[in-house]
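Could you please review the protein record set out just below?
***
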Amino acid sequence: MAHQAGGQRSALRSVPDDSEAQSYLQDYAAVMEAVPFPSVVVDRRWDVVLANSAFASLFRGVTPHPTAMPGDNFLRFVLFHPDAASVLGEHESRWCLPMLAHFADTVERHGHDHGLQAIRREIAQDPIMEAAYRQGLPHWVRAVGEAAVEHDGAVRPLLHPDPRWGATDCRIVAETPRTLRELGCTRLTMVLREPRRPGASRRRSRDRGAASHLTVVPTPEA
């Protein structure tokens, strides 16, 4: 990863380079480190600003990638890293589509952002993902409503490398204090649930060899 867990990036592109902001982020990193669940602070491009040790542990098994490491940009990891499905259960339907929906909403509001434009170009270079983004995604968003772009409260499957957790679920909890919001950042914590039963674990493990790019746009789950 590009930075140490609980630390901060050497060049925060969306955070003002002033001593008070940097001091706040250092103290906030200490708060995050006290949380036992994976927790990350991202900007609107999903560039990772802060991440705790539990977040690093969740993704410790992923192989190096030049542009899509989870500790650099979490959106790029979900969409483009070949190992994403080895950690994110039901990768396409439960992670890719919600992230694409959130990204599309962000692009609509901040289309001038060069970082967002770069991700959009990378999506366009993959014909299957581009078709999902332009054609399938709008139908999916209409079907599921506002929940499509809201991460807070979503329950999503994980395949944790720690055998004490294994195949499990996490509830994503968004807690963003005023100062982080003013810095253009959002904090997301993956609250892990009890591990699944062995039979369910085997079913979830089938996702481990799945391709990281979208192949279908499934109908929304009830």
